[in-house]
Write the structure tokens for this entry.
Amino acid sequence: MIIAIPSFLTMTTVCASCASELPEESQACANCAAAAVATAPAHDPSPAPDIAPFTPSFNLHDDLEGLSGWLILVGIGLVIAPFRLLFAIFGTNLPFLLGSGNQEYLSSHPLTAALAGSEVLVNVLFFASMLALNYLFFKKKKGFPTYMILYHALNAILLSINHMAFQTLHPTADLSAGLRTAVGSVVGALIWIPYFLVSRRVKATFVH
């Protein structure tokens, strides 16, 4: 197979005296007997085409940013949580602590009274925390994931301690509701803390 070589890549031989083109293997000019000189191939004058670097016209995180996916469940939980805490405070904690029928019992069980009072205080603090977390969530604030992780961790720890304390003080009492609440807080922490740590949607959404 014969491969054609472009003319601008071939070497030419010319006479050093009269500049006549000579056969490629010639050592001397046939016209004036001067020595032959090999010239370099002609340079291709056409410039190389400019290739612009590829720049994506979209943000790679655009499809992940926004309060969607699992964050919808987070938002629903945040909206409901303050009302649940208010119900716990005014429907359970305060009636038990301030009810006239319980005063004699609480006066003879000061540790139970102190524990009930601390539960009211914790629920009030959690209520305030929920209001702040709702603001951070819907404003897509950068600190929301960190504060949400802290909330879940503290909620699980404090509710578990509270249940164990009541169980210790009243071993024969039916505390199944408190147990369900404590277990639910622990399970929720085990689900949501890893989610907030590794979720790409969380990292793409809470950036303000």
Remarks:
- Residues 10-39 form one domain.
